[in-house]
Amino acid sequence: MHGFAFSTDVRVRFAETDAQGIAHHAAFAVWCEVARIAWLDAFAGGYDAIRARGIEALTTELVLRYRRAAAFHDVLTVWTRCGGVRGARFRFDYRIERGGELVADGHTSHATVDAVTRSPVRVPDWLAEAVRAARGA
Amino acid sequence: MHGFAFSTDVRVRFAETDAQGIAHHAAFAVWCEVARIAWLDAFAGGYDAIRARGIEALTTELVLRYRRAAAFHDVLTVWTRCGGVRGARFRFDYRIERGGELVADGHTSHATVDAVTRSPVRVPDWLAEAVRAARGA
Amino acid sequence: MHGFAFSTDVRVRFAETDAQGIAHHAAFAVWCEVARIAWLDAFAGGYDAIRARGIEALTTELVLRYRRAAAFHDVLTVWTRCGGVRGARFRFDYRIERGGELVADGHTSHATVDAVTRSPVRVPDWLAEAVRAARGA
Amino acid sequence: MHGFAFSTDVRVRFAETDAQGIAHHAAFAVWCEVARIAWLDAFAGGYDAIRARGIEALTTELVLRYRRAAAFHDVLTVWTRCGGVRGARFRFDYRIERGGELVADGHTSHATVDAVTRSPVRVPDWLAEAVRAARGA
Questions:
Q1: Mean pLDDT (10-residue bins), chain C, 137 residues
Q2: Are D101 and D19 in contact (CB under 8 A)?
Q3: I want to staple D17 with a disulfide (CB 3.0 to 4.6 A). Which of B76, B101, C19, C57 is the partner?
């Protein structure tokens, strides 16, 4: 059991492949973002709900380990969970699979800042609560 | 003579290639933008000078004809000129070469709008004047 | 009536937005490609069916007219049709809508070439037939 | 002293910004690749020298820590070094600065594989030697 309860599918676009004939490694960062946005839609009222309150969520760290190549047109399942809420910080973990086989895994770290001043602000209670609710789901 | 006096070089990035082993066609749109920005730097005080006055330049049309494939690591020369200023509209033409050989050509059309209201505003006189000056250069 | 019978939806990714706060114009070229691939899946056995026969379909022209800005998270419907088969050439037309409202339209032209020699080869009969069948659908 | 002797400059493209008004975090992965390719040009005969010998260098890990936002048109200096050669594996470290100020740092891990069979092959002696020579430079 891999400990993820939420996933989003993406299909590898031709524009995301490179001259090695496989998906370019930077595309995985975009797919994790797509999955993060889908998670926020499902559990926290969407990314725009965060932005509407004058908060931006910056990405402070990106870690990806590539286990197998992904090819054009592959359907990948991006398992996603949010956690590690502490002060102005939180984290998303990812497990990218193709037909149950591990393709890549990793995480991103994020910081909530005031959209205008860019100063750190605590992760809002409703977002922290959404993380807890998603864990329980 | 191809009628261009200003150019910018770009080198094809590996991330810009695709599984056909050549540069992806959408990358050319980005290179034209890079050349446009360089033209604005050279002749009009930079793109930020436009934005600083509360104006955005939207892209309203993109036309590209691909004559030859570009490969990873190729150095491409993007010839660029601006013209066709009329009301809230102007246009950039491009000729992309590799070692003097035509790789692609095309143009983009643009509209100047108020950055807040998004209503069309006349191309500022100083930008129209920069276009004339660049033509004379 | 706009004369399109097939469409694919895409959702604007955050990575596809730019500092103007809207979808970057080059992203539309990628969405047209996504729609083209979906059309080939629906009517012609998929893009890999073409490549499996030793043929590459190169993009020789890209024309896009941007009518309205697209924002992060917008769902866009990319209407697509294929036609204009003649010799080694064919063409796709696109109409990109959001809730029935026109956002952008345009077309791409393509040439079929031998995957190894890169010489033009006639559009295969089965692909020309797929285009006719899709028109009738 | 940060222990890097080789760097490459990149300028943030408008297409690389996002609706937060800053460079999108996935763009940094592309800039590291640009720097890696420049390093290979400077010290190992270029990436094509590797590919010409029937070897592909796959990216197996990507780690980036974002310290400060990068804005449109910023010139970033990507300090790069290669090391950690062991069997079929090697690693690049990066330090991305703007005017001497740290913007991001991280590393990528790579594996050399046979271009056809995709089986791991030892890092070629001449590449391992290039790494040693660059360290001494």
A1: 90 98 98 98 91 93 98 98 95 98 98 94 93 85
A2: no
A3: C19
Q: Are B16 and B27 in contact (CB under 8 A)?
A: yes
- With 0.80 as the threshold, say if the pTM is over it: yes
Interface of A with C (CB under 8 A): 13-15, 29-30, 33-34, 37, 46-48, 72-73
Cβ of D15 within 8 Å of Cβ of B33? The answer is yes
pLDDT digits (tens, 9 = 90+) for A13-23: 999 999 999 99
Interchain CB distance below 8 Å, B73 and D34: no
| Interchain CB distance below 8 Å, B26 and C33 | yes
pLDDT score recorded for residue D104: 98
| Structural element, H or E, at residue C75 | strand C75-86
CA A111-A114-A115 angle, to 5 degrees, is: 105
Chains in contact with A, counting 3 or more C-beta pairs less than 8 Å apart as contact: B, C, D
Q: Nearest residue of A to residue D27 by CA position?
A: A26
Residues of B with a Cβ under 8 Å from any A Cβ are 14-15, 17-19, 21-22, 24, 26, 72
Q: Whose CA is closest to D127, among D91, D78, D80? A: D91
DSSP one-letter code for D12: -
How many Å apart are CA A77 and CA A58, to the nearest integer? 24
The ipTM assigned to this model is 0.96
